[in-house]
Specification:
By secondary structure, the chain is α/β, with parallel strands linked by helices. The chain has 2 domains: 142 residues, Rossmann fold (3-Layer(aba) Sandwich), CATH 3.40.50; 110 residues, Rossmann fold. It is 44% helix and 17% strand. It is built from 11 helices and 10 strands. Strand 3, helix 3 and strand 4 form a beta-alpha-beta unit. Helix 1 crosses helix 10, helix 4 crosses helix 6 and helix 4 crosses helix 10. The radius of gyration is 18 Å and the shape is globular.
């Protein structure tokens, strides 16, 4: 069981930031990644659609004998976590929201915490609920930033257009006087430097990938599911091959990867 791979899925390439963090934290683990590029961005889809996509992908990862499943997508984590757990049955399922909310809330007092993410994530209110459940005095300000995912998927990073879009969102009055900002989308670490530049380093940026990877490492160790053999294998699948994905995937995973298109919808 320990030698089986970890399955990870996202609506596109954003989850590769989580996959890379897992590779760094758990170098012995094999990874099977599925990016649902045919349906991205999930943040613009209905809860029902996100749930159906997530269940089908989970079925695919189960067919690949994954020992654990990571929902590396905030939108799917916010609305389909319970559905995926039910689909996975006895296979442990991890999301990217709980570890971040717990980490932020356990170290807060009267802070004002900003959250930026997709419409689905923000409308769910999941970060506010989870943070305030642990730290009732926290002030949580959430803002949907729907243009960021397609901008990042197209590789428009560190350009004049990305600067303008980011500045427009972060200047919103809802985020005024925040002490920290949760990047509630696994795509957003790719624009962390641009966001940090906007704030001139004055706001603490919460990058979920490392926090999630650390949490999963602890959980797998507690479940005695850590792979102790140093012979990892990495497989990457997407539902719709595009040149932009191939170009960006190397940047996200920080090394060359081989991508295979697969149709799991029939």
């Amino acid at each position: 069981m320990q030698n089986l791979p970890i399955g990870i899925f996202d609506s596109g390439i954003g989850g590769l930031t989580v996959a890379h963090a897992l590779k760094e934290k758990l170098p012995n683990e094999s990874i099977i990644y599925f990016g649902d590029t045919a349906h991205l961005p999930y943040g613009e889809k209905s809860d029902e659609a996100i749930g159906n996509f997530s269940k089908r992908i989970t079925r695919f990862l189960i067919s690949k004998d994954c020992k654990a499943i990571v929902i590396a997508c905030n939108s799917a984590s916010s609305v389909a976590f319970d559905l995926v757990k039910k689909q996975a049955k006895n296979i442990p399922v991890f999301n990217v929201i709980d570890p971040v909310a717990n980490a932020v809330a356990s170290n807060c007092s009267n802070f004002k915490i900003g959250v930026i993410g997709t419409k689905a994530t923000i409308q769910s209110g999941v970060y506010t609920r989870k943070i305030k459940k642990i730290c009732s005095s926290a002030i949580v300000a959430s803002l949907a930033t729907p243009l960021l995912v397609p901008m990042i998927e197209e590789g428009s990073i560190n350009e004049e257009v990305s600067h303008k879009i980011i500045s427009n969102y972060l200047s919103n009055r809802l985020l005024k006087d925040i002490d920290s900002l949760i990047l509630a989308c696994t795509h957003y670490p790719l624009i962390l430097n641009e966001i940090n530049a906007f704030y001139s380093g004055a706001v603490k940026l919460i990058d979920s990938a490392t926090i999630v990877a650390d949490s999963i490492k602890v959980e797998l160790k507690n479940m005695q599911l850590l792979n102790l053999n140093n012979n990892p294998n990495y497989q990457f699948y997407i539902s719709n091959y595009t040149k932009s994905f191939a170009k960006s995937a190397k940047f996200f995973f920080q090394e060359e990867i081989k991508i295979e298109e697969v149709n799991i919808w029939n």
